[in-house]
Amino acid sequence: MASGRFPGKSADVAINNWTAPSQGRPLCVNGTPWILYLLEECVDNIWEYCSVVIGLISMFCFLLSTIPQVYEAYRNGKVEEAMSFGFLVFLLSGDLTSFAGCYLTSQLPIQVVTVVFYIFTDLILVSQFLYYKIKNSSSRKNPALKWVCFMWCGAGTLALLALPKLIIDNGSHLNTQSPASSKSVEITGYVCGYLASVFYLCSRFPQIHKNFQRQSTEGTSYLLFALAMMGNGTYGLSVIVVLPALKGSKQNFIVKHLAWLIGSLGVLILDCFVTAQFIMYRKNISAKSSVLRHIPEVEPLLSEEEELTVL
Prior knowledge:
This protein has helices spanning 11-14, 33-39, 46-65, 67-76, 79-82, 85-104, 109-137, 143-170, 179-214, 222-241, 250-280, 282-310. By secondary structure, it is an all-alpha fold. The longest helix has 36 residues, at 179-214.
């Protein structure tokens, strides 16, 4: 199982490249060293190599996707008017269930660290939303609100820094369970994968509705959705590219990755609608900016007329 936003392959791909260890013979024959060291995958052909590289590009896009929105929210200060809280809740729920799937199916350390980073950025977005929601709805300043927000983010950062190590150390006991119990845990992990895909799909609908209701996309960063589109597109491509290298059943491989393919390609289609909204409502933002630019030019003239009247 792969994380909902992290591309990974099941053991079906790499298992044929591994050999039993013997004296003077490497465990992985003709494997790519850096991939073996980083991802613990034995890759010895061009199809699998392209799949891994495209998958890492996908992961990198997802890692960067929320950063532009965090900056836009900080710059604009009115994120509660632009972002849908349902979008943020579903996104966080998708990453949490994806994290549960990573734990139950004993994924690689890099996948655990990555999905924890996703949760961290989700918490920042949610915290920003709540902070500006409370701040902008209050008629008076509340200095304690900023300190509560900083303390919350600090505590969350420390907890999430320690979490991957604890999960990796405590997750090793899952591999020593009986075959029946291990199968049950694996099925639960795949169920979490399907749930994560449903959450990711549901996350776009509240934001699409919010944009349509406002007839504007002001306050949201398009890079959030553009990078997500690149991440989902490259993830789907990384799964498809590896198919020619499979020596086992291609049908079983597709079935095992179906949940994440549905989630990634489905979200990709929905993000195309969001892109259309950014194009459609761009004129509204331009018109509003034009009005704001003219306001400073009008105010001095009015003040001069008032002075002449007084004289």
